[in-house]
Design brief:
6-stranded mixed β-sheet; UDP-N-acetylmuramoyl-L-alanine:D-glutamate ligase; Protein-Tyrosine Phosphatase, Chain A; Udp-n-acetylmuramoylalanyl-d-glutamate--2,6- Diaminopimelate Ligase, Chain: A, domain 1; 3 domains; alpha/beta
Length: 459
């Protein structure tokens, strides 16, 4: 984590006040939450709709904070205390993070995309950790607050940082990229997430490509080469940076040759190599995430043997194609963290392709933020499901009912059940599911379908 004297912090953020008498105080780390700060932290008071962090500055200082920021137009800053007056605490936090990153000799990998960025981040970190000391984004700390906090928590001897970059509107990825200054940028794919905000996949592609705006001179862009929206845009800028692509077709720089999976892992081979790679996560789409990670690792000098060992030991963030056991012998794939039409289809195809189970059951909820065509996206998901491969479909939510409506075109009515009440869904699901059944649970994060998984795990 950042360790600097208050004098240095003051210089890094262009502090506005005189801090003589406190200049030698050492700051160790940064916190935006007075309840979880640790001794020596710099406390950053943020202002939101519900509260004003300035109310907690005095308490933070009394409870071990080494210093705090204070917005210049907020009255009554603590007197005779180690407080740095700034134009705006949030902007000062971001300025501090950028200055800290600029002071470190570290290779930075930035990862964005509509789907799979967290899993790809985890895979890249696992591969690079076979050779380097690695720091990565925790969970999905990937926005205008999460990224600076991730940077400021990075140990000074970090050799490679893997940073996830999320967005909801244009300009956000550009802002994060210019803060992190990646040496390598990765775009996992262009999906339908954020259609509500951006209006079209074309605009989503433009927003994701903002990641190259902060790319270091001579930097490398790694992107999904099956996506025409990326191909045509990158071709227009091919002289601005180097690029490599991954994907399913043989025009990519790396593509899979053979893919097989069992109940707990996926194995694959890749173009130009004889080695077999194994990832302890399910889904053909995760093979593509692994290919992106392999291109990063090759760029940074990780050999094939270490890539094999690194991929086999990856730890994926929870609720992303996570296989867990139910209380009565069910096998549950918990993919309740997020959902879009692209990721929903991939998860369903995974379940359809798996064998050796008594029954296969889908529990699907609303996909959010899809804009004016959200009903049609859900209908098509239902139409996409194979009645020969899936035994039961349970849907949840106002949009989930359209998945059920789409499935009704090929499923008998007794095999498709739609719910608006989660507890009713759980009760019905428990009656239908049993030992050696495979259950996929997937929806957007706001639907909280992990509560269904938890209920199935309880006796």
């Amino acid at each position: 984590m950042i360790k600097r004297t208050l004098k240095k912090i003051h210089e890094m953020v262009n502090g506005l006040n005189n801090i003589s008498g406190f200049e030698t105080i050492e700051v160790k780390g940064v916190s935006i939450n007075s309840r979880t700060l640790t001794e020596g932290n710099l406390f950053v008071p943020l202002t939101g709709e519900q509260t004003d962090g300035h109310k907690y500055v005095q308490g933070a200082l009394e409870n071990g904070a080494a210093a705090a920021f204070w917005k210049k137009d907020v009255p009554n800053p603590p007197e005779h205390q180690p407080v740095i007056i700034v134009e705006d605490p949030e902007q000062a936090l971001q300025r501090l993070a950028k200055a800290y990153r600029d002071q470190l000799d570290v290779k930075v990998v930035g990862v964005t995309g509509s789907n799979g960025k967290t899993t790809t981040k985890d895979m890249i970190a696992a591969l690079l950790a076979t050779k380097y000391k690695v720091h990565k984004t925790s969970g999905n700390y990937n926005n205008h607050l999460g990224l600076p906090l991730t940077l400021l928590s990075m140990p000074e001897d970090t050799e490679a940082a893997v940073l996830e970059m999320g967005m909801s509107s244009r300009g956000e990825i550009e802002f994060l990229s210019k803060m992190a200054r990646p040496d390598i940028a990765v775009i996992t794919n262009i999906g339908e997430s954020h259609l509500l905000d951006l209006g079209s996949r074309e605009e989503i592609a433009n927003a994701k490509l903002e990641i190259v705006d902060g790319l270091a001179k001579g930097g490398l862009l790694i992107y999904h080469g099956d996506e025409p929206l990326l191909i045509e845009r990158i071709a227009k800028r091919k002289d601005a940076f180097r690029s490599l692509c991954f994907g399913r077709n043989d025009e990519n720089d790396i593509y899979p040759l053979e893919i097989s999976q069992d109940q707990n892992s996926t194995s694959f081979t890749v173009s130009g190599r004889e080695e077999k790679y194994v990832i302890p996560v399910l889904g053909r789409h995760n093979v593509l995430n692994a290919l992106a990670a392999m291109l990063v690792a090759r760029e940074l000098g990780v050999d094939e043997e270490h890539m094999q060992s690194g991929l086999s030991t990856i730890s994926i963030t929870n609720m992303r194609m996570e296989m867990v056991a139910g209380a009565h012998g069910e096998k549950i794939i918990n993919d309740a963290y997020n959902a879009s039409p692209t990721s929903m289809k991939a998860a369903i195809e995974l379940i359809e392709g798996m064998s050796g189970f008594s029954k296969k059951i889908l529990v699907l909820g609303d996909m959010l933020e899809l804009g004016p065509h959200e009903k049609n996206f859900h209908l098509k998901i239902g139409e996409h499901i194979s009645p020969e491969e899936i035994d039961w479909i349970f849907t949840y939510g106002a949009l989930g009912k359209y998945i059920a409506e789409g499935a009704a075109s090929s499923f008998s009515s007794e095999r498709v059940l739609s719910f608006m009440d989660k507890q009713e869904l759980i009760s019905s699901l428990k009656k239908h599911a049993g030992a050696n059944d495979l259950i996929l649970v997937k929806a957007s994060r706001g639907m909280k379908l992990e509560e269904v998984v938890k209920a199935l795990q309880e006796a």
